[in-house]
Every structure is written in structure tokens, then in C-alpha cells.
Amino acid sequence: MILTDSLLTLFLKTRSDTEEICAPLQTEDYVVQPIVDVSPPKWHLGHTTWFFEEFILSKYVPGYERFHPEYAFVFNSYYESVGKRVVRTNRGNLSRPTVSEIYEYRDHVTTHLQTFLEENDEEHIQELVEVGIHHEKQHQELLLTDIKYILGNNPLLPKYNDTFTEHRVPDVPTRYIGIEEGVYEIGHQGTDFCYDNELGRHKVFLSEFEICNTLVSNKEYLDFIKDGGYKNSLLWHAEAWDWLQNENVESPLYWHKIDGVFQQYTLRGLSDIHPDTPVTHISYYEAFAFAQWRGERLPTEFEWEVAQSAFNWGTRWEWTESAYLPYPNYTKAPGALGEYNGKFMVNQKVLRGGSVATPQNHTRPTYRNFFHPHLRWQFTGFRLVKCK
Amino acid sequence: MILTDSLLTLFLKTRSDTEEICAPLQTEDYVVQPIVDVSPPKWHLGHTTWFFEEFILSKYVPGYERFHPEYAFVFNSYYESVGKRVVRTNRGNLSRPTVSEIYEYRDHVTTHLQTFLEENDEEHIQELVEVGIHHEKQHQELLLTDIKYILGNNPLLPKYNDTFTEHRVPDVPTRYIGIEEGVYEIGHQGTDFCYDNELGRHKVFLSEFEICNTLVSNKEYLDFIKDGGYKNSLLWHAEAWDWLQNENVESPLYWHKIDGVFQQYTLRGLSDIHPDTPVTHISYYEAFAFAQWRGERLPTEFEWEVAQSAFNWGTRWEWTESAYLPYPNYTKAPGALGEYNGKFMVNQKVLRGGSVATPQNHTRPTYRNFFHPHLRWQFTGFRLVKCK
Amino acid sequence: MILTDSLLTLFLKTRSDTEEICAPLQTEDYVVQPIVDVSPPKWHLGHTTWFFEEFILSKYVPGYERFHPEYAFVFNSYYESVGKRVVRTNRGNLSRPTVSEIYEYRDHVTTHLQTFLEENDEEHIQELVEVGIHHEKQHQELLLTDIKYILGNNPLLPKYNDTFTEHRVPDVPTRYIGIEEGVYEIGHQGTDFCYDNELGRHKVFLSEFEICNTLVSNKEYLDFIKDGGYKNSLLWHAEAWDWLQNENVESPLYWHKIDGVFQQYTLRGLSDIHPDTPVTHISYYEAFAFAQWRGERLPTEFEWEVAQSAFNWGTRWEWTESAYLPYPNYTKAPGALGEYNGKFMVNQKVLRGGSVATPQNHTRPTYRNFFHPHLRWQFTGFRLVKCK
Amino acid sequence: MILTDSLLTLFLKTRSDTEEICAPLQTEDYVVQPIVDVSPPKWHLGHTTWFFEEFILSKYVPGYERFHPEYAFVFNSYYESVGKRVVRTNRGNLSRPTVSEIYEYRDHVTTHLQTFLEENDEEHIQELVEVGIHHEKQHQELLLTDIKYILGNNPLLPKYNDTFTEHRVPDVPTRYIGIEEGVYEIGHQGTDFCYDNELGRHKVFLSEFEICNTLVSNKEYLDFIKDGGYKNSLLWHAEAWDWLQNENVESPLYWHKIDGVFQQYTLRGLSDIHPDTPVTHISYYEAFAFAQWRGERLPTEFEWEVAQSAFNWGTRWEWTESAYLPYPNYTKAPGALGEYNGKFMVNQKVLRGGSVATPQNHTRPTYRNFFHPHLRWQFTGFRLVKCK
């Protein structure tokens, strides 16, 4: 458990970090929701605030008055057990509360929570604050990827700023790392923060395998495209193939073929595609098809966790072959917080690692990210494992 | 034809009127598009500006440089013959150009057109400017009704301002006006501005009829609701009945049943329903069902035009029984401007009159407004004609 | 009013005619519903039977027992006021009752109605029987067009039979017939059967016009296609253009481009396109676009009715420019029979004439057929009127 | 490898078994497709036949002429690499080929394959025949469940026959079986037939667990319903909850509440719900929610496989917690047959066991069935594992 002082510092820093991410935005950028998976930035600002108000201030601060009686409705996300919520597809239809009202709301809640924390050091409260901080850090990453989608799908292709570097070339030569057959332990241990889905440390048996120390690069991916990878149905899952046809997918998200050459939209604007940088903004479907084409496969999340200390990671979320499922004897937290992870454990794939958009210290070897297999707006990549 | 001086004055006034309508808005209100029929206010601001740039400045001003090369794409509406356009359902996904950029764009175009008009008095140009002015006035009304929708569908129910009066009680007792059988002339005459759909003045034969001098009131409409009007399938068109079931329609748009009593959202916020005010925000389907219930009927647009001088009108667009069709030997203007009206002449109903949102001098006895029969976000009402 | 004897004869002949239309079918052909507008033939057989059972036998024959208690549910169509009904899109999901059970049902009802008519000559009953006969005749035409759709959309392109002739070349040279300006009477008169939508004979004023004595031919329509008619957005209504893009429409329904040459599926199987035969299976949208391309227009239903004695008609339903609306002071019949026509009087276009699929004596100069403007599975064509 | 004689016998028996399943059907029952997951029985009859024609006769029998050139198009299912196919949702729109034509097709292919097998004993051919036999056995089960859906969703609720027994009460008392922690081997071994998805025998580590020897019963499931299981969002996955709301699910498929008491449609018609029979026709979502409610969980497919010899199984397919994923180093067969299993390995859950509809000898402890988590038309049930 983090001591109160540093918890308070971390809380305040997290709150201001979120706002810093939004600093380059125009007011209008806070409002729109071009696809259902993306939320308007102002919603993220409000939702992360509501979380502290709903689960701490309104429960533990005697006489606390909510900033606005309707905000619980507007900024609830999926917490079915905490009253009605705004349907996700409608978030982009709400012009009010305004951005500046939401910043006031943030200040209000931050201040009240600060006061409360300065006078209260119960462990239970501190645990809730810690959950709230990590919840907000998760939304920091989503904020950035949602902002990229909002700007990158505008016909004017405006840039976010001039400094954000998406581009990371590996500094080691590519090679395969062998891991021996054996029984390994999986899952979080120790007293540091983790989500409930990482708990339930348990053993798995792994056959020996060889895993690549680098992610698949743009250059390799371009070879796949040139070789007709998007045209060969045998490489794809049946529902991936349908998705491909319906959405006319022919390259990673944000790639634009201009005068016959691919370029990509980045947070700095349109730019060349660097051949040695890991490919990103691809779906699990595409990662899988690429692996089929190469005669290799994706690692399971267990293989990844066991092998991860032998390679560098953290610049791209890595699709694994594993479905997002509970660890043995996983149990949900009681009440609304129990809705946090468990209710999503169906039809999603696990991603491991982290990305250029992940907040500092917000990832670890046991962290289990998850998305539906067709989604591409996160900074997603993949590494390969050899087939025997 | 209006003389240049007054045309210029009218042009400048129209441009500033549009902006005045937007004065009470927050930046965020300019951006959203909660349903496909509503456009974001910033789109209206840009589109009305693009119209002058596309059809006048870029064609007739030598060396004119467009304010931005992509705006023609972003702000085109339905003019298929003038290049690609933003799909209507995507308008609310565009955070850029920003509101202030669009105001700059407006200034740019207004200034250039002003300069051009001060040096140019060709009749053809003046006609185009006049079309552009009337086009912008039409959008002024849409701006206001779209703003009402944007605010009125927000769970916070914010008001537009404290002064806008939707409420108009008729100052005469209700009675039926008899019109004799005969051949009447329909359509615009004279040299004042009108749209092409009003031209082709022609004769129609009308049987005698009796038309009400006032619109159906909230009180009367409440009686219809109380009598089970929304539950009786025999009163409704087949597709109206399907619409009713799918959309769970049980009252006019913007009516909220609170503690068992109907209230309505207005541009001043939530308020009581005034029994003597004409009912508004109802679809053609509802107007028709009410008339069936009363054993009366809606007037045709011809009956309305012939009788209109005998009653007051202009506070509510009035649904008629007439489909929106070309007058005999109607011909579209050549080129893109010909797309203005003719291409909508199917599956829509004619509305006559005007509303509290209609700009001054922007209506006349021959004006033909038109909407799909299920739409309700305009200030729509209706009057009855007796069945023989 | 038809005398009982001949009414009975007509009733029996109508019942057997319906079954004769189905004689070439395989059992499987009776079952499917490839699009929502088409009904399975077995449904037509049951529905026309249910009509007599519901509105006559069960009401007027003391002690009559329905053939099956659930059939009223299965075979009701749109009569909302007569209990629940099978949603139209589900009709093709019902394998039971079987075809032979439905033929038994037909025999049962035919026999009971015959017995009843032999003992009963009340005028009210005879009127209902007459409505039922005409209702069944309408379904005879739908049966044939639905069968054509079912077979013509099967990849095996099976023929219906070897004898049905869709092909009718006009036997007179094409010319335009002038009609003088004046007030004309429109609508049914006399005591012969007609639908309620033809009643309310009334006057209309028509300007002078010139109408073509023949329908637009395949040859003319091919010229339109070759000239890029389907590619020129300016010729089309806005919603027609959307329909075109969504459905990839590039020619009339049932046309197949095989080795660069159009052929058409007919009830006799695939065949060449005869240049002088009227074009058929086109939507109102296509008729309108063709007229735009030719610089002419479609007649209104009133022009058609006034001019029709001067030309031959009856081989193709003719789209008119008129929306399907009630005649002045039209009133629906009370109760469920009132649902027959009036509830469809919105968003549809009037067609006049008749087709190769129309039963003998089932059309007349005042007959108002109606369909949505995008529909093409009826034998639809059109004639032109000159624009002044 | 099965010797040729018994392979031929098995082939012929399989072909006739399929037809026996269809014996109680009316011709109409062969044609319809009420939901996308269900195929018309005549399609199953044709598709299993096409499989032999496509992969054996047309490839290995010199001069073999296909029964009909278009059948490969009509009866292909998902084999993208073998030419165009009928979109799955359109199968129910095809009245041709007729049922009797398809039976002729079956005879033709059966006879040709019999002749070929009598003269040919190459192992490769025999392997393909064996795949075809197992493919047809899989479709036998689907035939029966699809027939149940077709009849059970007809408002007349016709029965299939009087003899088919869905109902199986366990003959042992319920108890939990303990399995010790350890490394276990999973997957098929030996030379008997199995699918590629069972191969790649490999080790897994299992913690100790206790698994129930009987399936959850109707009585237990009724308790869940009575306790508000379908109303408590906390028990459900997020997308399960959406599914529940959209589809108005309140009980297992085929349950009808009649006068306040649940009854169920079975292949023998409507019947009482037997309290001790395992609950069936439930989705994975429902199985999961029930387990949450009970504070237990579903077994993984590995736990199931390891424990299965200690309990009886085979009357209901059992949902497991496992996602349908490739075993380590799984490789697809080359070419079209490789499309058989691997392409479905995403977004589905594994079911183990077998059901009353499974053909004899068509299941085994390593058999991996799979369906999307919302599907209910198979005979699906589940057993529980205790949470620690």
C-alpha cells in the first residue's frame, strides 16, 4: 500500500497529466465520437472524475453534495448496477456539459478528494483511490488513441502536436529466444497494485517454444500486402474475411495510399512509413493472417509472460492468441467495482505489453489488456512464435 | 430584381442575422449532430458560406482563391454534381474546421462578395446572390430548429435564451371559412423572388370546402391523446403505425410526462403546455391521425393557397395533404442549382405558411416547404377542413 | 350489383383461376419469400381464403367453425384491427400449414361459401363476396409477379412454363395525342364494382398536354443506359440516387448482361430483349430519370385517365407522376375493410392501366394501383408527356 | 484406418441415416431458414452430397460429370477457396433444386462413390471418404436441431414424431468429484478418426478442482429464474446483458409460459418441463450467469477432458469456460479442407460431450464442439465446478 503522502501526490499528478494530454486540443475536438469505440475527450474527463465522486466522495464524505445531480447519469460508463447510463453511441451527441464546466467539475472533485485524503488514512479508502488513479491512467491512454482517431479521420488531417513520437525502432538485431518446456507460474504476486484479472497466481504447463525478440516491422508487413495477403481467404478466420470485405480493409488503419505509395497519419500529421518501425494499428485478425502467411503463430499470453524478461517491450500492445478469460478461481469484487473487468471476459483477445500512449509505470509483465479482435485504433502490434 | 444597394444591404444583414442566431451558443453546441436530419450549427455556418464561394466567387471573380481547398468537400450538402461530399451522417464527427475558423471563412467570403458586388451589377450575378441570400435564410430556420433539437435532447435540458417566444395564441375565435367551387390560379406571380418550385402558375379546380381559421390547439390534441388516439391503429397509415411502434411515440416531440402531467421543452427551457397555443412538433402522420379521429381532413396545398388570405398564418408550418410534386411543366434550373428543389420531389409532404423560426420576409402565400411525413423537429402544426 | 347466379359462378371461377396460376409450381416454390415485398404463394392461397372466412363465414354463417383456429393469425395481412398477425418478413419462415393443408382449407371455405350463397341473397353479403372476389383477383396478379421473383432470383433460373407471353409489341405507330385545356371529371361512376379509392368523382382542371400513344420501348431504354443515364446524378431524385448506389442498379430488374449483351429473365426462362417491346420491371425512379433525360415528363394520373380512351393500354402498369392520395372527401369504409386502401395513402405513387399479369376484367380506366417508388417486381412501364 | 469393406458399409449407412432423419418431414419443412444459423434441411442434404462430389468424385474419378453444374455454387458452405457460394442468409430463399431433385443428386453421388470405392483402396481416398462421413454425421445433428427450430418456431407447433426422446434423467445421485493437481495430457491419441482440432496432444497443468457428476437440472434453473437471475445485471457479461435486453430473453429457448407455468416445445410437441432433466437450449451467457448466481463456475475444456471418465455424459453438449483456440502448434490441412475447423477459431466457446441428437459413435472424450456464446438452438447444457 502506498503511503498517503505519495498517494496524494500521485493522485494530483494523475489528474493534471490527464489535462495535459488535452492541452493541444481545440474545444471542438473534445466533443465528437466518430465511431462507437471512441469516446469524446470531454467524456473521458468527466467519467474519470465521476468515478472518484461516485465510489468515494458520495459514499464516504459526510454531507458531500454532488457537483451536479445529472452528471452521474451522463458520465457513468458500463456500471449497470449504478443506475441508468448514457448509451455509448450517444456520447457524441451531447454538447453539454461544456468543456469548461467539466474542468470545473474536475477541480471540484479533485479539491474535495484532496481535502478528504489529507484527513483520512483508512486503508480501504486508499485502495479505492488507487483504483481510481489506475482507472484514470487507463483512460489517459484511451484519451490519446481516441484523439488520434478524431483527428486522423477528419478530412483536414490536423496534427495533435509537433513532438509526440510514435516511432520507435528496435535497437537490437532480430532473433528467436528459446524457452524450455516446464511448469511456470503466471499472474501477479507481491503487494503492488494490480487489477483483479491478474490475480489468482497459478501454474501453467508450457511446451518448449521460440519467440521473436522484436515486433513485426512495417517492412515485413508491406511484404505481406504486396504478396496479396489481404486477398487470400485461406489466411483469414471466417469472420475476419467477412469483416475485411464489409469494411474494405486493405492496409493498417491510418495508412493512406497517395500516388501509389503508403503514408501514415501520426499524431504529428501525415508522414512516411518507416520500414524498421513495428507495424501498428492492426487488428488481431490481421496479426493472425500475417502469422499464417509466415508459417508462424502468435504467442499465448502465458508464453509471453514467461518469455518477456528476455526481450524489450512497451512500444506497442501485442496481440496474443489467448482469449480474455478469468484465471482459475478468479472472483469478481463485490458490487459495482466488480463490473470492472470480469464482465468483459468473453469474445475478446488478450494484449500484453504497453504502448507509446501508455502512462509511465502503468504497465507490468502481468498486465492483461483486452480488445475485440477487429479493433485497430489502439497502438497494436505483434511478435511471432515459430511453429514446430 | 432588387437594386444592388439594397441587395448588398440585405446580403450583409442576412450574414449577420445568421451569426446572431448562434450568439447564445457554447462552442460545443456548434459541433454535434444527434440525428441525421439535424446538422451541426457550424456546418450551417460553413455551408451557407460555401454556397456563395462555389457558385459566385470561384466562378466569377478572376483569380479568386478559395479560403481552404478542402472546404468545398466538407461543406457541400447534396450537390452531387459538384464533387464528393461529406456523408450527412458524418457531419457530427468533424471537430475541424473549428468554429472560429469557420467564422474567419465567413468573414473572408462576405468581404470578397461585398467587394465584388460593389464593382459588379450584372443581373445574372445579382440573381445568384439573391438565391444565396434566400438559401441562407432557409438555413437560419434550420439552424434554430437544429439548435432546439441539440439542446432539447440533452439530458440537462439547457435553454437557448430567455427571450425566444414560441408561444402564440390566436386572437380570433375559431370558425370555418367557406370557399366556393371554382377554377383558381396557383403559384407565384410577379417579379419578386421565389423558388423554382413555386413557378409555373397554373389553374386548379377546387370543389367547395370549409377550412378552419385557426390551427389545432394543444388542448384539442390532449383530448386526442386522452381518447387513446395513439393506441387506435385504424386512425393511422400503415407505415405510420409501424413508425409509432418502433419509436414508441406517444405524444408530440419535446413533450415530457412528469408526475403524470405533460410539459414541453422550449427554447426557454422546460415549461407548462399552454392549452390554447397551437400544437407543434408533430409529424404529418400524427396530423393525419388526429384529423381521422375528428372526422375531418387536412387541406390540400391548393385549398390552403386559395383560402389563406382569409385567416392568419405564420406561427407554425402547416402540414397539407398534398405530396410535394412539380407543378405542371416545372423545369429544373440547369446545372448544380437545378438540384435545389426538384430532386426532393418524391415521398415528401408540402407544408405551407411559416413559423416562429422563419426569418422575416422569408415566406409568402405561394411558398412550398416540404418534409418527410415522419419528421417532427420543425415547428409544425396543422389546420382542419370539414369532410362533406 | 351482380345477380347471385353469376356472382356464384364468378366466385367459383376466381377460386379456380387462382389455383390454375399455381399449377406449374413445385411444392417448394410455394414456400419461400426472397424479399419482404414478395409473399410465398401458399400465403396468397391462404390469405385470400381467410378473407372470405373472416369477413363472411365467421360473421354471417350461424355455427360456422373455422377450419383451424390459428389460421386467422397466420393468414391475416395488414388488418391490424383483426388481431395479431404474422410479421410480413416472417412469412417465408413458415413451413406449416403445408400446401396440401392450404388447398384443403380453400376447399372447405369455397364449399361453405357456395352453400351459403345458394341460400342467401342479401345485398350486403353479395357486396362482401364481390369485394372478396376482387381482393382475390388482385392477389392473382401478385401471385404471378411473386412467382416470377421467386424463380427469377434462383441461380438455376427455372422457367414457369412455356406458354406465358410477357412480350407485347404495339401495333400502331408512335405519336403524341393532344388533349385540350379544360375541367374534366375524374373517378368511377356507375354501379359496377370499384374500390373505394376510385370513388368521389370530382372535377380537375387540366392544362393542354400531349401524351404519347405508346409506352417507352426496350430500345429507347437501352439508349438511355448507353448514354450513361444510370451514371448522371442530375437526372435522379436524391433518394433515387442513394437507392441506385446502395443496390448497384444498372438496368431494369431481371436483366442480365451476358458476354456484354443484355438478356432478360421471363416466365418462359432467359430470353433476348426485344427492342420494340415496352420496357418493364423498372421503378418510378428509373421512369422519372428517363423522362428527365428525354426532356419530357410522366403524366399525372388525371391526365392519364382523361386521355386513356385515345390509346391502347393494359400490357404494363404505367407509373404516373401522381402521389397516391385520397380523392376529395374520400372516406374509409368503417371497420377492418376500411383498412383496405386508405392506410396506404402516403409515400406511394399511382400506377394506371394493367399488365399481362392482370386478371381479365380486373382493370378499368379509373383503377388506381399503387406501389412505393423503388419497387420493380411488378410489370411496370411508362409513357411520356411533352414538356412545354 | 478403417478397411474398405466396413468403410463402404459405414458410408452407405451414413447416407441412409441422414435420409431417415428427414423421413418425418413434409416437403415444405425442407425449404425454410427461419434464422441465419439454421439451414434448410434440403440444403444439408445437398451440401453433404456436394462434399463428396467436390473433394473426391470430381478430383479422382476420371471423366466424372457433375450432376448439375450449378450445384457446386448452391451447396458450397464456407469454402471460400472453392469458388463463389450462396450467402448463408439466402439459403432459405431457394425453392430449387427441389427436394426430389436433391434426393436424385444424393443417389447419383452415393452410387458413383460406391462404385469408385469398390475399385479403389488408396489410403488417401479412404481418408477423404472418412472425413466426408464424419462431416455428414455432424450435419445429421444439425439437421435435427434445425428441424426442431423450424417446427418449434412455427405458430402451429407441429411435432416431429411421437418417438424421439429428448428427456434423460441422470440415474446417479449428484456429487462433486475431486481431481488432483497435476500435469495432464490433452488431445486425441491413437489412429481412430478425429478432427484436426483435437490433434497436437499436449500437456496442461491443472490445479485441483471439484466437478459435478451431473448437469444442472430444470429444477435448479427454474430456481435461478424465480430468484430474478434474468434481472440482475451483475451476473451477466456486458454483451450478454445487451443480448438479453435486445432479444427479450427470460427463459431457455423453446420454453413457453402458458397460464403462468412454463412448458417446453420438444420434438414430440409441447410438454411439461421435467424437473430432474438437465436444462437445455441455453446459451453460454446463461450458463455463465447461472454459475455466477450459484457462486460456482464452468469447467475449462481441459478440466472436462481430464475428469470425464468419472461421470456420464452425452445427453447434452456442455458449455465450457474455454474459448475455441488452436492447440499448441496446430496446423491446418492444406487447401480447402484446411478451412474445416481452423477458420472458426475466434469468438466461439468450446462445448464438450454430445447430445441426444448426436449420431452414434460420433463423439469421444477429445471431441471439441464450438458455437458462438449466444446460440441456443443446439441441445446445450452445463455442469458446474466449485470455486475455491
Explain what the structure shows.
The structure is a homotetramer of 388-residue chains. The first copy, chain A, folds into 2 domains: 4-152; 176-386, paralog of FGE (formylglycine-generating enzyme). Chain A has 388 residues and is α+β, with helices and mostly antiparallel strands. In chain A, helix 1 (4-22) packs antiparallel against helix 4 (99-118), helix 2 runs parallel beside helix 4 (99-118) and helix 2 packs antiparallel against helix 5 (123-152). The model of chain A has no long low-confidence stretch (mean pLDDT 93). Chain A is built from 9 helices and 13 strands. In chain A, strand 5 (255-258) and strand 6 (261-266) form a beta hairpin. In chain A, the strands form 5 sheets. The first copy, chain A, has a 4-stranded mixed sheet. A 3-stranded antiparallel sheet of chain A has the order 5-6-7, with no helix packed on it. In chain A, strands 1-4 form a two-stranded antiparallel sheet. In chain A, 45% of the residues are buried. Chain B binds chain C through residues 78, 80-81, 183, 202-205, 207, 209, 233-234, 236-241, 284-285, 288, 297, 321-323, 325-326, 328-329, 331, 335, 338-339, 343-347, 349, 373, 387-388, and chain C through 78, 80-81, 183, 202-205, 207, 209, 233-234, 236-241, 284-285, 288, 297, 321-323, 325-326, 328-329, 331, 338-339, 343-347, 349, 373, 387-388.
